[in-house]
Amino acid sequence: MSHVLSTANSAQPPVLASAPRPASPWRPAAILLALAAWAVASIWLAQNPHNQDLTGILSSPGASHWLGTDHLGRDVLARLAEAARVSLGLAVASASLAVCVGAALGLLAAWWGGWVDRACNLLADAIAAIPGLLWVLLIGALAPGQKWALYSGLVLTAWVEFFRFIRPTARGLLMGDQVQATRMLGFNSMYVLRWHIWPPLSGSLLKLWSYAVANAVLALAALGFINVGVRPPSAELGQMMTEALPYYGEAPWLLAAPVLLLAATVLVLQSLSVAIAKRIES
Asked: Per-residue confidence of the chain (282 residues) as pLDDT tens digits?
């Protein structure tokens, strides 16, 4: 009898573990929005990031200056907030315009094909042949310290990735049965784009956008670190690192603050990209 019961128990199907829930993009998005809100609110709530106090240089963190002061007596927390505004503002704006340019050219190439497709591909290959940071350096050299030059350089290097994603994906969708049936029924091009092309592309474009923002933040920090980006007295993360290096021994918090903020910002943006990608796959 026991042998029969053991045999019956062994024949029971194994209990399947529940599949893990996909990562939610709302948590990193909320952190990113909180960071942006803090950077904007500091315009009215924090001290002036450009005010100098030569009697209180390299002060350690305290009640009057939560993150201390730099080598010119300026409040580090206020300058950190200004640096976050500059970096995130330029990065988000450049990535957003790059999405528009890359998506428009990718759809144009996929829709028309022929010489339009070849011309767009030739332009993208020409841009991609030169490293992105070098493009930003070349354009930034035309107008040193000007934000529009940095913005233009970031857009120029970022739109190619969106174009190379949109073009083959949109071409495959345009050749699908749903689009062919929609065209046979007499619906116009805007209807096709609205209902058959944009929905499958929107999630992946959002993921690529967050990657582009993270790359732009790192590029701006690299330019500021070599004194090619935003010029003083405006604060920028890479520039703050360069200014803090000579005083690292006596005031290590000066270097720690921009490094930690840069690492946290990039980590949040990368987490957002990964969460969006997992949500799309699920």
From this structure: 444 444 444 445 444 444 456 567 788 889 999 999 999 999 898 889 999 988 889 888 988 888 999 989 999 999 999 999 999 999 999 999 999 999 999 999 998 988 999 999 999 999 988 887 788 878 877 777 678 888 888 898 899 999 999 999 999 888 888 888 887 887 787 888 888 888 888 888 988 999 999 999 998 888 888 877 788 888 889 989 999 999 988 889 899 999 999 999 999 998 888 888 887 776
**In angstroms, rounded to a whole number, what is the distance separating the alpha carbons of residues 255 and 70?**
10
In degrees and rounded to multiples of 5, residue 250 shows phi and psi of: -95, -20
Give the position of tokens 């573990």. 17
* Model confidence, pTM: 0.84
Beta-carbon contacts of 188 under 8 Å, excluding residues fewer than 6 positions away, are none
CA dist 268 → 52, 215, 273 (Å): 32, 12, 9
H helices of the chain, in order, are 2-10, 26-45, 76-112, 114-128, 132-142, 147-174, 177-184, 189-192, 198-225, 237-244, 252-281
DSSP-derived 3-state class of residue 77:
helix
**Residues with Cβ within 8 Å of residue 106, at least 6 apart in sequence:** 120, 162, 163, 164, 165, 166, 167, 170
